[in-house]
Amino acid sequence: MFSGIILKVLSITLLIIVAIVLILGIGTLFKGGETSKKYSNKLMQLRVLLQFLAILALVGFAYFFKN
Asked: How far is Cα 57 from Cα 60, in angstroms, rounded to an integer?
């Protein structure tokens, strides 16, 4: 029971972090200028990495804790 709550919180936290990085990346892209050149691509690369980790975690949780 307790581990299930921790896993749900961890899953939601990972998804929120991905959403924050996505919003920052899009905002930087639309801002344009030197900031966009410097950070936009890096933020999108970070988003892809975080999405990969979130998907791995969610699939792992589904596999190991199926009832």
From this structure: 5
